[in-house]
Amino acid sequence: MGVIIKQIVSNPIDSNCFILHQPNNQSCIIIDPGAENTTAVCEYIQNNMLEPEGILLTHEHFDHIMSVESLRKQFDCKLFASKKCSDKIVDSKKNLSLFYNNIGFKCKSADVFFVGIRGIY
Question: Which domains does the chain have, with CATH numbers?
Answer without folding.
Answer: 4-113 (3.60.15.10)
